[in-house]
Amino acid sequence: MVLPVAHTASLLQFERYARLTGIELDTILDADHLALLAQAHDCETMAAQAVVDIFQIVATAARRGDLGIAFAMWSSMRGYGPLSLVWEHSITVEQLLRLSGRFLHLETEAIGSLAVAEGDEIAVQQFLSVPTLMGGSQYLEATLTLQLRSIRNILGPQWHPVRAEFAHPAPDQTSFHRSVFRCPLVFGADRNALLLRRDELRRPSPSGNPHLIAYLERQLEATRRSRSDHPLGSLERFIAANLAGGGLTLARAAMGIGVGERSLQRTLARRGLTFSAMMTQARQRVATDYFTNQRKPNLGELAHRLGYAEASAASRFLRENFRAGARTLSRRNRSEPAA
């Protein structure tokens, strides 16, 4: 399977921010990651997992639980990849979310995005779709902050979400988080999301540019087609977005990515895969990330994230796939060095 990639623009901005703020990348990163960082100066894309890992390794070594947010607030919105102008010139939040959801993989295949209606609110979720060395909380916090900034560009600088949810535990200090998001914060949630009011979706932006957005959408669509986004990439992102809570089936996944169920089965078979195997891979990523980030793991909570109704099912999954139970995996995580 083709490895997920990410545009190098975010990593190059992150490198500049780290050096400007006195973070010694040359002493923090190992030779392989330094080589990848050097490679980013000459390439448009690179392995998505490497970008996520570099964010997390640097934040951990620098003891900066707010590094992802601080970087995203410092960075130039125009200094990213293909979606930069969409973030700046979208007419409404509804349009912004539609275009971001459709074309986010052109910017990064490390995460997926999903907007879900929940009564009078809309949950704008982001989720990791790649395995990581140490979790991806810093990368997710950075991308959620960029989402926040893009919505404020439409609704005004004083806008704030109903609340912000983070799947990882709270850092030691949350004052900077509170100053940026200016809303209730929920840590240890089963998702990473911004909650906004439904009636904010169609409020027009004074700086929206309909002609430019129409042009950008045509260009992004042409780029998407030229890359020939494979159905399995779409399937991986859909599974990652819909795993928690259970009820995910091949039929539902096929409908969600816009292909026929039999066609998807044939595509999987040609790659020697099954839907069950794809689900297992997604659950392995979720479990690995969970034990990397959670200080006090809860088997019932993990079961929900894995899509199981009972904690016993999650326990069986851990023993079948990791040859260990929750307590052992938690102890392993605590005994391993952070970076």
TrEMBL record:
Signal peptide: none
Source superkingdom: Bacteria
Keyword Metal-binding (UniProt): no
Residue ranges occupied by any HTH araC/xylS-type domain in the UniProt entry: 233-332
Pfam families for this protein: Arabinose_bd
Keyword DNA-binding in annotation: yes
A GO cellular component annotation in the UniProt record: cytosol
The entry's keywords: DNA-binding
Single GO molecular function: transcription cis-regulatory region binding
PANTHER family: HTH-TYPE TRANSCRIPTIONAL REGULATOR GADX
Protein name per the record: Helix-turn-helix, AraC domain protein
Lineage, top ranks: Bacteria, Pseudomonadati, Pseudomonadota, Alphaproteobacteria, Sphingomonadales
